[in-house]
Write a structure and sequence with these properties.
The structure is a homodimer of 390-residue chains.
Chain A: E1 6-7, H1 18-27, H2 40-60, E2 67-70, H3 73-87, E3 93-97, H4 102-113, E4 117-121, H5 131-137, E5 142-146, H6 160-169, E6 173-177, H7 189-192, E7 196-200, E8 211-215, H8 230-233, H9 241-251, H10 254-278, E9 282-284, E10 295-300, H11 305-314, E11 317-318, H12 334-338, H13 343-347, E12 349-353, H14 360-389
Parallel strand pairs in A: 1-11, 3-4, 3-5, 5-6, 6-7
Antiparallel strand pairs in A: 2-8, 7-8, 9-10, 10-12
Helix pairs in contact in A: 1-9, 2-9, 3-4, 10-14, 11-14
Amino acid sequence: MNSRLVYLDHNATTPLHPLVKNSLIQELDSHFGNPSSIHWAGRKAKNLIRNARQNLSELFSVSPLELIFTSGASESNNTVIQTLFLNLKNRTEYICSAIEHPSVLKTMQHIESLGALVHRIPVSREGQLDLEFYQNVLSEKTALVSVMLANNETGNLFPIKRMAEMAHEKGALFHTDAVQGLGKIDVNLKDLGVDYASFSAHKFYALKGSGLLYCKKSSPQFPFLFGGAQERSRRGGTENVLGIMTFGLMAKMKKEITEESLRLEKLRDHMQQQILKLIPNTRVTGSSKNRLPNTLSLVIDGIDGETLLMNLDIKGFAVSTGAACSSGNPEPSPVLLAMGLSRAEAQGSLRVSLGWQNTEDEINDFIKELVLSVQRLRLIDTEFQKDFEL
Amino acid sequence: MNSRLVYLDHNATTPLHPLVKNSLIQELDSHFGNPSSIHWAGRKAKNLIRNARQNLSELFSVSPLELIFTSGASESNNTVIQTLFLNLKNRTEYICSAIEHPSVLKTMQHIESLGALVHRIPVSREGQLDLEFYQNVLSEKTALVSVMLANNETGNLFPIKRMAEMAHEKGALFHTDAVQGLGKIDVNLKDLGVDYASFSAHKFYALKGSGLLYCKKSSPQFPFLFGGAQERSRRGGTENVLGIMTFGLMAKMKKEITEESLRLEKLRDHMQQQILKLIPNTRVTGSSKNRLPNTLSLVIDGIDGETLLMNLDIKGFAVSTGAACSSGNPEPSPVLLAMGLSRAEAQGSLRVSLGWQNTEDEINDFIKELVLSVQRLRLIDTEFQKDFEL
């Protein structure tokens, strides 16, 4: 393996921010207490959680009491869908997009098996949700709509504010899995007008094992994890104190989010332009207009994404593919298939997602290596086909 | 506050083990990858989880595939109780002890509200479960029995092996919340013969936000958190990689567990003897025979536990009381009340739980300070009563 490692898979997870790392090393000793204890050890831990909650509430323009710390966005998503299904008996229909994260899609399947009617909004090849379909299935029977803020695969953004208004007109609740937006675009929950939103610390340069559930004060809330009186009895279990601390530290970086997004967008656009110019038969997946500034999703014809990923990996470049087991799953990305890509196209997909620590040099090196790798793989493929024909 | 801080509340949470701390500082950079990614960053994280799972399986004498990483024991407890209630339709009765952790008691209340019949085994003042009651309520209708391995408050141990056999005779499943046993006594799950067991990393000198659910291979298993294919699709959500790593490191300390337990038992017995000798009208709560080696639970007559705790806290000693909001809850400990202690007794309770970093000097200092604090508080109380009478 090349000694130089270039990480270009920030939609999967992010490295720790240097500030987070320094802070962690400093606090490893002093904040081990149980926040529920009233002695010195507990108070230190409790203060740390209070500060983090305050920082996050300012980042999202909401009240600290509207934020519940969870183990991650998957738990947040499960909490909203499972508890509303259990408790809202008058409304039994649910709506999500066809390209949600598995923690939404599979939880929807779960409540479907228990009797809920679930509508899935189709998405076009250009990454647009079918809003006419959405309007048609929305009704007085709709309990909850769950649509992500931005798609993890393509980076495409969805019109959450408008969709939440449409849901509210029918008296339905609205949840957004906002994981991919955090740290990449401004996420103002008050302005978005949603009832619930899910976030994950580890996609925002903080520790794994910590997430957030926003519950608007006036919206129904039910516990999913029963236990101690933590989080005002809304989520039991000793808090992941250090995870929460790192999450809170990142929440103060509003300025960095804006600056880095502008920088990464330029870098991403440069990368896209070069790749499309230098590698024939390559195209962007979804809309290239309305998307996260850091994400580039491509289909490269005649290439097996997994083989390409492994070739790049040997050279030290970490990227992702919607092709295969990049999420431990041997099937092609359900997102790309739902967008109408063929299995062959999905097999040839490549996702590059940039982060705050990436440099222009790294991206230029990556472009060179990608061009070489694709040429090599296409050549092998051609040779193989020749051999086969002879 | 005294500059010297002495932590004596290890049943609430433990400080990080020095080895864990060093390892964390070393690994902060190298293991940030998403274990589901197939590139170098993902593989490093995945290997780390595999090693931790292997270590833990050896500690518990089970197969690595029988272990599911969760966000903590509260999630593990919720998972077992909630999913079995949802999926086992032929059996609708549940049994737990009256002194379980809130994550069991409240989850039982939750399924009770959904139609389950829940039996709670009473416990005597001496900390003995009423096994005759247990035998009488066990039946072919029992889905699950959930009884903790050791009580957090008194440290009393329960006859889990025998109780699991009794459950199995009726075809019922058996779960144990084994949180308080881990790191203090040998926990051999194969020998205990339970179907499910819950553990928490942060009560074992590792990070908060990481727990474990043991599911015996042949016992029914259903996901609680739906999402990605993590944990063989049994628990969705990106793994808390560093939490799991620290948990796995601690799992290798079988020898230290034995040695420290012997050392702490002597220290605890010395402390108990001195306190009972030097402070009149003081007694041990529950059984002083069959209990965790590190735990001492006392009732000190005529003392308000919370006031005592705060007095000790000012001197730098962190202890716990079953009196009040030591768990964010203004009510006296339900455990002590269930054991038949009066509210006044529960208000005067004190729990000292020792850990691997405690020294004999610390304990002797604590005994001295406790004696002085109790004398002072009892004197104030007497003076106050005199004033009141005049």
